[in-house]
Each structure stands twice: as structure tokens, then as C-alpha cells.
Amino acid sequence: MTASPDAPKGRRHPWLGRVLWSLLALVISVVASAGVFVAWLHGDAGRRYLARRIESFINGEIKGAISIAEITKLTRRGIVARDVRFRAPGGEQVIVVRDVDLEVRWSAALRGRFVSPRARARGGRVVLHERSGTLSIETTFSGRPRPQSERSRPPPPGPQQSNVVFERIEVSDITLITAVPGVPDARVSDISTVLAIDVREPGARPLLTLESVTGSVHLDTPIVIRMRFTGGTFRFSSGDRDRVRANITAVLDDNRVRVRCTTTMRGDTPRISVRLVLPESAGLLDSLPTIAQVGLADHFSASFDFSVDRN
Predict the structure, then answer these.
(1) 217-271 pLDDT, tens per residue?
(2) Domain ranges of the chain
């Protein structure tokens, strides 16, 4: 039997059109809702909401706490914020930064990780306190242990990663203040450096690495020592016996010197060794003030070894 030439061709079922229109309406609704949400995030209320969400997430991952006074700008690349503060578990402030420009991997954020590949921090201070033999900044950035309900579960396959990662932080106009028992108090102002904070796995202690360190140093020894850092590296690994390793170039008493510093833990007691390496060209008279200051600093602290060598 052949079809009648008058029979309709390609007739659509009535429900197909309704389905297509419904899908189109759904897509338009989703796009419109996303646009409204993005516009809301760029407003004052949305930026406040995002600041609280970032605080809540980071505070759930570290033993310390972060507070963000205001997110002033939100872009596809990240956020711009002011007055960002980190507090140790005891409540003391360890880091205060005036202005922060933070790149954020939003794709990682959707998977439950906060990853910043690059940040810029300008203006503020870092304070090194010691509580019960541990630096407050060390405790602040230590990862929180897994909850009891999660400890019974086997860890997922593959290497474990921290949920909060700061890969590279460009720091400028920062002041470092130290108050550690047994060590002369120090103040380093106008610091510029590149900082990386690495918590190698959940619950681990942090590894801090500073590169290209510059700044002006004031060391409260019996005869005050002043020097200017002109470059070098600094590594702080809170989980290792060799806690600190630094190799920094500096200017001291018009002499260009190299500062080599190590901090070794003997139980809960730190043993700090600082060695100044003078150039061969430095004359004896030029070196006498430095040698005298170093000798006094070494004499007045049982935990502080300070020496001078020739290059």
C-alpha cells in the first residue's frame, strides 16, 4: 500500500514542541538567575557574603583564624580585600595586612579547595610570639586534624593535599616583630619578599619559604645592631628538627656581609646560630664594631650563638 500524496510529511508530535519550549525556558531561567547572582556578588551584600564564606572555609582548615574586613573588588581572576588578619588559637594577632590582591582558582573552589596561585600583600605587620615553646605563627597555619568521624575512614588513594594552598605571595612594606624568649628582640621594617606557605597534607605543619628578602633590621642587643637585608632566602619548616635555615646578604657597618642562620630544636628548646661572613676586603678597624656587637649578643643569651668569619 502506498501513502496518499496528500498525507502530511515530517509531522511533529504535539508534546515535542512543549518539551523544547520548556527546555528553552529552563535555560533562559538558569542564565538569568546566574546573571542576577553574579550581579549580587559584585554588590556590597554579595561581597560581604563571599568574605564570610572564605573566612569560614579557611578557619575550618587551619588552627588559627582569618578575618577579612572588606572585599572591595571581585573579578574572574580573584578578589581584592583590605584589612586581612590572622590570629593564633590564643587570640593574638600574628599577621595584619592592609591590602591584599588575591588570585583564586574558582574551579578548585567548586571542588572544595581554596587555591591561590598568586597574591600580593601590601602594608602591615607580622608578629612572632612564642607560646609553650611553639611560635604562634606556626600554630596558626598548622592544619586542623581530621574529625573523629573521618579518622575511621581509609584515606582516598593517591597523595593527600591540603584544602588551603597559597602558592606565591608577593609581599611589600611589611614589618616583622619578634619576641622570642632567650633571643634578642628584633624588628625588620620595609620588608619585600616572595612568600610561599605550604601545608603538605591535611593536618600537617606548614613550610614557609621566603625568597629575595629585603628590609631594614634593628636588633636589640646591648649595643644595638642595625643592618639592611639586600637579598637571600629564608626557610621555616615547623615539623623539622632544623626549624630555620636562612642565607641572606646584608649591609652592616658599611660592610657587605652574608648572614647564615640556623635554628635547631633540642626538645622544646631552640638553639639559634647566626654567623656573619665579612668580605676579605673589610679592614680590621672596620670589623671591630661588628665583632664587639656580636660578642656581646652571644654573651647575654644562652640560646643564641653569634659569630663572625671572613669570606
Answers:
(1) 887 776 677 889 999 998 887 667 777 888 999 988 777 888 888 888 776 677 7
(2) 24-144+163-208, 221-311
Closest CA to 301 of 276, 269, 268: 269
What is the DSSP annotation of 245-270?
EEEEEEEETTEEEEEEEEEEEETTEE
Q: Is this prediction's pTM over 0.90?
A: no
Q: How far apart are CA 53 and CA 46, in angstroms?
A: 11
Q: For residue 39, which phi and psi values (nearest 5 degrees)?
A: -60, -40
Q: Give the residue among 246, 248, 276, 249 at the shortest CA–CA distance from 262.
A: 246
- Residue 154: HSE in the Cβ half-sphere, 13 Å Cα cutoff: 3
Helix spans in the chain (H): 14-42, 44-59, 106-110, 136-141, 148-151, 284-299
Q: Which residue has the cell 633540642?
A: 266
Residue 197 CB neighbours (<10 A): 19
Contact 248, 259 (CB under 8 A): yes
102 vs 122: CA distance, rounded Å: 12
Q: What is the pLDDT of residues 156-193, one digit of tens each?
A: 444 456 677 888 899 999 998 887 766 677 889 999 99
**Do 244 and 277 meet the contact criterion of CB atoms below 8 Å apart?**
no
Distance in angstroms (rounded) separating the CA atoms of residues 205 and 14: 64
Distance between CA atoms of residues 18 and 276, nearest Å: 82
